[in-house]
Amino acid sequence: MVGYKFCEKLIAHPNSNDFEITVFGDEPRAAYDRVHLSEYFENQNADELMLAPLDWYQENNIKLRTSELIINIDTKDKQVFTHKNEVFQYDYLVLATGSYPFVPSVQGADKPGIFVYRTIEDLEAISTYASKIRKAGKTSAVVLGGGLLGLEAANAAKVLGLKTQVVEFAPRLMPRQLDQAASDMLKSKIEDLGIRIHLSKSTDEITGEDAIEKMEFSDGTSLNVDMLIISAGIRPRDELGVKAGLKVGERGGIFVNNKMETSANSVYAIGEVALYNNGIYGLVAPGYNMAQVAVEQITGGDKVMQETIDMSTQLKLIGTEVASFGDPFIENDEVVAIVHDNKFTGIYKRINVTKDGKKLLGGILVGDSSDYNNLFQIYINEGPLPENPESLIASSQSGEKVTVGVMDFPDTAQICSCESVSKGTICEAIISGECSNVGDVIKHTKAASGCGGCKPMVADLVNANLKSLGKSVKEHICEHFDFSRNEIYDLIKINKVKDYDEALNLFGRGTGCETCKPVLASVFASIYMETANRQVPIQDSNDRFLANIQRNGTYSVVPRVPGGEITPEKLIVLGRVAKKYDLYSKITGGQRIDLFGAQLHQLPNIWKELIDAGFESGHAYGKSLRTVKSCVGSTWCRYGMHESVSYAIRIEDRYKGLRSPHKLKGGVSGCIRECAEARGKDFGLIAVDGGWNLYVCGNGGATPKHAILLAEKLDDETCIKYLDRFLMYYIRTAPPLTRTAPWLGKLDGGIEYLKKVIVEDSLGIGEELENEMQELVDKYQCEWKQAIEDPEMMKRFKHFVNSDDTDDTLEYVPMREQKAPRPW
Fold first, then answer.
1. Residue 460: what pLDDT?
2. Global pTM value
3. pLDDT tens digits, one per residue of 318-358
4. Contact (CB, 8 A) for 150 and 231
5. C-beta of residue 385 within 8 angstroms of C-beta of residue 352
6. CA distances from 793 to 378, 437, 543, 565 (A)
7. Contacts of 177 (CB under 8 A, 6+ apart)
8. Rounded distance, CA 109 to CA 29, Å?
9. Stretch (H or E) spanning 397
10. Which of 64, 240, 659, 803 is the most exposed place for a label (fewest CB within 10 A)?
11. What is the pLDDT of residues 477-500, one digit of tens each?
12. Is 396 left (phi over 0), alpha (psi -120 to 50) or beta?
């Protein structure tokens, strides 16, 4: 990756025509993205990982020689020798040979069934062997190493359908990035996904006859193993440097100065092979900076490497967000560690602040890294801290967290660490007129083209600068509609447009696409409360078949169970249907029963039985209200202050079928003990002395947010009035696929503005919003009842368009007295 980046930087230099570039690589393919290597298991397409197509090298006159190994360097005569006995002359030589996986010297480490995790070829070998042992009924995989790559490898093994365990020598996971508490949180989240973690384990021996069978540890314990993936760290691939007599470190790595120069004239080293300031740096950003420095030095520039290398990183490991920045471990009398540790939500945050509260020194985030960009910018630019630094990571009583606007940072602030792009560079690209949107900026500056973590900040900078230039900033739905969702909403409503083709003719161009069609389907449903049945061709796949498609091509069936309350008779019906159609049954987090594994042609028959028993569609597949969760409230609980079940059912019945920009979830808790988790929902009610406290704009998911107090001590009717206003205002104004929490985050004035609109009716539209909601409530229909009563609608529930045949390729495996799809 770093070698490719050197080429990219060199050909972009004004003096690039002075150079002829030849690239040697011993792998069979050109440079690819090792950061996202695990994604290869999802699509089995190596081309999607390529950093540039082969045409790119040809177009830029780069001679690319793959599958060709350099075996020797003559630094005196400036020559390199290949394994094909060819000799090449150079003026400048750049070593970007990277690293190789470290394999501990354990007896038996060369047995079949043991792999490293580094290249696409490694992944192909792992995948092939996993398939082989699964066919033999073996499913046990162990990953040796609990660092970044080790956890990636563990996820890969899990994706391959293996029962996966991780063995780590250190007493905690990711010991270079996380403290003990953060590691414990990460360990808990990973084990919840079925991956077992073993810490403080030293491997003595690997045993087995024809292949690996067991790992023996120094503490006397052992593990039965069918496949072992070793990811115990890296070592610089410096054998060429050693052979050529270059200065190397005691523990490996080719010595370089701040110009990336080695001990030999005209020879440079960059990336993981380079030993700089006595360290090897295995992240993309430092490697890319080294490539830029080498280019500048070779072309006569004066750029040098900074003395201290920032190792901040933000990533997602096995579905868990993890980030660290600065010095995450610093502990002395002059430092205060502020910790937010919520084991209930699985979120751990720590920031290290100077004792005077004026400087941020580092931090760790696990479970929610949404604060990373804000914290990193404060740290890297030594920005001022709020009076209460804790508010940087924990919400205040009003629900607000302190963030620093991206425009408040100096022009020197580094927005994209992968490509070293500053705020000033991005702003200048907009102000100069060279760029007019986010895509232009990415293409022009390369910002957000690496890991992509800075893209939201880049977008904020682009929009802020366009506004400062007096230009309107619009979020177009797509290339076929030059309007935002709320503008399309108004146009369709005012002009009483009922069909997609009519909207396209009046307001758009072209033939439309898979982006704008579902958006307009949602708008039609939000305005007219029509079901997904009327305009099937513009729905996404889930709405088209009124069910969530699962990973093996089957569908789930989720009837509505308002408030989680269900009679014994209906429970019996669900059990009878699940047994009749051999469906996997699970109680969901939203107090419903989910039936998995239904084939497309079975859906109408299943739903007819459920509807005949009094069930309705649960809309689990739609961008609509899902559930309103409730505790048992004052009906049963001795702490309950109000009858939460009845009120939750009333609210769910009111808003069922309501289509919106994204899914909606609600909760009603009968007291402040919050058993319904109301503050983790898009809207939540908590009973207090004197009525209901209404909270809005929370959500779980990848970026969880606590809902914020909108109004307190409300009676039942006032609470529903404010909910009507809130939900309709959100439906009118939110962009497509935007949950209420990020919508509020982008709303000018935030929660205080929303209070004025909803509670104080500052815009004078309160009654209008209430009337609109009532119209939608009055028009509700159960989509599945409508579908099974219409023969034309039923025609779409066939696996094949031109045949009544069913899908006979489905494979299942036993799972705790039920069944599950065979793992990929």
1. 81
2. 0.60
3. 778 899 999 998 888 899 999 988 887 788 999 999 999 99
4. yes
5. no
6. 56, 42, 13, 31
7. 148, 313, 322, 324, 328, 364
8. 28
9. none
10. 803
11. 888 898 888 889 999 999 999 999
12. beta
Q: Are 599 and 555 in contact (CB under 8 A)?
A: yes
Q: Are 385 and 353 in contact (CB under 8 A)?
A: yes
Q: For residues 633 and 619, what is the distance between their CA atoms, to the nearest angstrom?
A: 25
Those residues with Cβ within 8 angstroms of residue 103's Cβ, 6 or more apart along the chain or in another chain: 109, 116, 230, 232
DSSP state of 438: H
Q: Is the pLDDT of residue 153 over 60?
A: yes
- In this structure, what DSSP letter does residue 62 have? E
Q: Which two tokens stand for residue 719?
A: 């609470």
Are 677 and 704 contacting, i.e. CB atoms less than 8 angstroms apart?
no
Tokens describing residue 720: 């529903």
- Going by pLDDT thresholds of 50, 70 and 90, the confidence category of residue 381 is confident
Amino acid at 799: H
Question: In 3D, which of 575, 672, 691, 674 has the Cα closest to residue 629?
Answer: 674
Q: What angle do CA 5, 6, 12 make, to 5 degrees?
A: 90
Contact present, 481 and 507 (Cβ < 8 Å): yes
Residue 277, phi-psi category: left (phi > 0), alpha (psi -120 to 50), beta (remainder): left
Per the listing, tokens 């039920």 go with: 818
Using a CB cutoff of 8 Å and minimum separation of 24, what contacts does 444-452 make? 445/416, 445/419, 445/421, 446/416, 446/419, 446/421, 447/415, 447/416, 447/419, 447/421, 448/416, 449/418, 449/419, 450/284, 450/285, 450/288, 450/416, 450/418, 450/419, 451/35, 451/284, 451/314, 451/315, 451/418
549: nearest Cα among 374, 797, 778, 366: 797
